[in-house]
């Protein structure tokens, strides 16, 4: 599920993939022109790859070049096998291409490659751009590789396991990045990189189970659900406390801090207007003060008063 | 073979992210605000996770977006980086086409990141970023490549402020009384005509007094200009700051300010901001260059009034203090 799925498909005249697919389909499979056409198609599809990307806009080199070459090789094999059975729009071309890319990427990543990306990361100082690049590639490669274990699955309902598992994977990947120094390629009998990762994943999953046991029966809301969630009664809300505090204004600061030459446009007045769900446009109209002046003043006040709020509410 | 599309990075929104979001959401009464807080929290957490992979330190507890009181008062998505200021992490909904920042977004954030949330709210995709906070909405296909975020953050060691000496206040009355240069302020004569004939931004310093200082002709605008060097090494830019004072009465003055690109450039850098601050340091006026030739602000002041002009670009700030 990637951005290519969420962005509208380009009109046919503009979608470069279509031309390239047509051209490849128009040539005899193993002809010279066919071969060129497939390579061009592969290049276009490879633009969306998540791994084997050039470092900092430079030329592809080193391990990233190798990864890209591998993916290209796998991609060409798949294209060769499937190009002539693909009918435009079934599935939509971008989906077809991105599936192929996913498969090719998956096929390219083995434990040895993962290990070498990890070592590449270790090779660079923390916080350097080279290290950032290597770690991003490592995270994506692990995710694409399908080599993360799925331990303890039978102990949980499928839905809950899914939630727990994703959480555990996230935490494991963070651990891999932040503790990459601790990875020792010479340790362990089989010396597989993924053993180090999966060992951690197993531990983390068990910890997560303890932390999140209250979610066993709960579901996470989606975008639509958010509209319907009930709000707590007014009494317990911090929003109400803040509003009251600003309205009462025990020290007088909120009403006395105002926009220059406008004692009516005080922090208090603006805050209360916003609590009444007035938009910036409405407040601007009411005070006849431009939005940037209002919002910038308000924002600075919020920062300035933050310690006061902290003392009273946290 | 090296041609790649801009990188997007997908993070699973898992139990931790939702737990935080729910805890914050529960504290709001207003349903729209509650939803806003939920989505903002998810977006900020997604960026935090990404930065974890890059070993960039963040401090959630100290972030404005993680503070329920601030959440109540503002549409806040500020994530504090331990070393480099703040990032704005704006949620973009599945049908969104633009990256927008609410008016109350602090303008000195290091960058703004677009976080696309899907309908299920189970995944967030970082689409790209903007190197400074714009006033207008940015189309999603005009964002900077996420892969350059590290580069951008590296060029901001901290919020660099090059102050003119705080005690160095430019006395504009002296400009009226004496000819000649004042320190780095060089006399210019071409300012008046070019400004009056094409005023781009015209504000009244005193928003309350509806008396917009009139375009008074015949009274000279005494102007001088100074070169200002902004931005971070090695990408610094020099612009020309022109200031003119025009006496309307014994007590009132018009102040004209223009920031112009300098040769060989004929346009200002896009993310250049200029602000006018009053004596409390409160910003009363602001404009941003959108790649225009010049930025112009006009306002009126009274005698002995203190004000400051602040120019900002890529995390560097130059502040000039004046008394009119």
Q: Would you kindly provide a written description of the structure presented here, covering whatever features stand out?
A:
The complex is a heterodimer of chains A (314) and B (324). Helices cover 63% and strands 2% of the residues of chain A. Chain A contains 15 helices and two strands. Chain A has helices at 3-6, 16-26, 32-46, 62-82, 93-108, 111-123, 129-145, 158-178, 193-211, 223-228, 238-248, 253-256, 267-275, 280-287, 291-313; strands at 258-259, 262-266. Chain A has a two-stranded antiparallel sheet with strand order 1-2. In chain A, helix 2 runs antiparallel to helix 3 (32-46). The longest helix of chain A has 23 residues, at 291-313. With 324 residues, chain B is of the alpha+beta class. Chain B contains six helices and 18 strands. In chain B, helix 1 (15-25) packs antiparallel against helix 2. Residues 158-166 and 196-214 of chain B have low confidence and may be disordered. Chain B has helices at residues 15-25, 31-53, 68-73, 149-154, 172-177, 191-197; strands at residues 9-12, 78-81, 85-92, 98-99, 111-117, 123-130, 138-139, 160-163, 169-171, 186-187, 222-230, 237-247, 252-261, 273-278, 283-288, 294-302, 306-313, 316-323. In chain B, strand 17 (306-313) and strand 18 form a beta hairpin. At the A-B interface, helix 7, helix 8, helix 10, helix 11 and helix 15 of A face strand 1, helix 1, helix 2, helix 3 and strand 6 of B.
């Amino acid at each position: 599920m990637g951005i290519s799925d969420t962005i509208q498909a380009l009109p046919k005249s503009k979608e470069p993939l279509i031309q390239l697919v047509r051209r490849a389909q128009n040539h005899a499979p193993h002809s010279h022109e066919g071969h060129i056409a497939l390579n061009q198609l592969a290049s276009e599809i490879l633009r969306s790859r998540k791994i084997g990307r050039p470092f900092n806009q430079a030329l592809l080199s080193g391990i990233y070049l190798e990864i890209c070459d591998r993916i290209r090789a796998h991609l060409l094999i798949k294209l060769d096998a499937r190009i002539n059975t693909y009918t435009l729009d079934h599935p939509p071309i971008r989906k077809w291409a991105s599936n192929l890319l996913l498969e090719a990427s998956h096929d390219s990543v083995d434990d040895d490659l993962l290990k070498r990306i990890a070592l590449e990361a270790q090779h660079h100082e923390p916080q350097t751009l080279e290290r950032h690049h290597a770690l991003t590639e490592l995270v994506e490669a692990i995710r694409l590789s399908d080599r993360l274990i799925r331990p303890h699955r039978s102990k949980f309902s499928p839905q809950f396991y899914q939630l727990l598992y994703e959480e555990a994977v996230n935490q494991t990947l963070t651990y891999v990045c932040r503790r990459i120094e601790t990875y020792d390629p010479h340790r362990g009998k089989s010396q597989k990189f993924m053993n180090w990762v999966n060992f951690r994943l197993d531990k983390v999953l068990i910890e997560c189970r303890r932390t999140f046991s209250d979610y066993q029966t709960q579901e996470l809301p989606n975008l639509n659900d958010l509209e319907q969630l009930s709000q707590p009664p007014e009494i317990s809300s911090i929003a109400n406390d803040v509003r009251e505090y600003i309205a009462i204004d025990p020290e007088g600061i909120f009403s006395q801090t105002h926009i220059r030459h406008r004692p009516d446009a005080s922090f208090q007045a603006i805050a209360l207007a916003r609590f009444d769900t007035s938009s910036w446009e409405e407040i601007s109209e009411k005070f006849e003060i431009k939005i940037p002046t209002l919002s910038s003043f308000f924002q600075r006040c919020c920062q300035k008063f933050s310690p006061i709020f902290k003392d009273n509410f946290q | 073979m090296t041609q790649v599309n801009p990188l997007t990075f997908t993070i699973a929104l898992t139990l931790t992210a939702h737990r935080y979001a729910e805890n914050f959401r529960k504290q709001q009464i207003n349903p729209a605000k509650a939803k806003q807080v939920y989505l903002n929290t998810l977006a900020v957490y997604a960026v935090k996770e990404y930065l974890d992979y890059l070993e960039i330190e963040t401090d959630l507890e100290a972030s404005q977006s993680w503070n329920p009181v601030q959440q109540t008062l503002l549409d806040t998505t500020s994530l504090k980086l331990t070393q480099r200021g703040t990032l704005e992490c704006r949620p973009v909904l599945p049908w969104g086409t633009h990256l927008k920042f609410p008016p109350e977004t602090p303008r000195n954030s290091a960058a703004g990141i677009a976080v696309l949330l899907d309908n299920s709210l189970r995944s967030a995709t970082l689409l790209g970023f903007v190197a400074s906070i714009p006033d207008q909405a940015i189309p999603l296909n005009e964002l900077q490549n996420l892969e350059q975020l590290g580069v951008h953050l590296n060029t901001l060691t901290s919020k660099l402020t090059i102050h003119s000496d705080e005690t160095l206040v430019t006395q504009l009355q002296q400009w009226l009384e004496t000819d000649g240069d004042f320190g780095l302020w060089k006399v210019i004569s071409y300012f008046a005509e070019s400004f009056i004939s094409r005023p781009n931004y015209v504000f009244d310093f005193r928003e309350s007094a509806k008396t917009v200082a009139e375009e008074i002709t015949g009274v000279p605008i005494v102007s001088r200009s100074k070169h200002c060097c902004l931005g971070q090494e090695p990408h610094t830019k020099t612009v020309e700051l022109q200031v003119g004072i025009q006496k309307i009465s014994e007590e009132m003055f018009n102040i004209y300010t223009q920031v112009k690109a300098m040769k060989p450039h004929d346009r200002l850098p896009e993310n250049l901001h200029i602000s006018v601050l009053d004596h409390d340091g409160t910003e009363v006026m602001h404009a941003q260059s959108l790649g225009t030739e010049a930025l112009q602000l006009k306002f009126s002041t009274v005698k002995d009034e203190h004000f400051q002009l602040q120019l900002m670009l890529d995390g560097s700030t130059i502040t000039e203090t004046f008394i009119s």
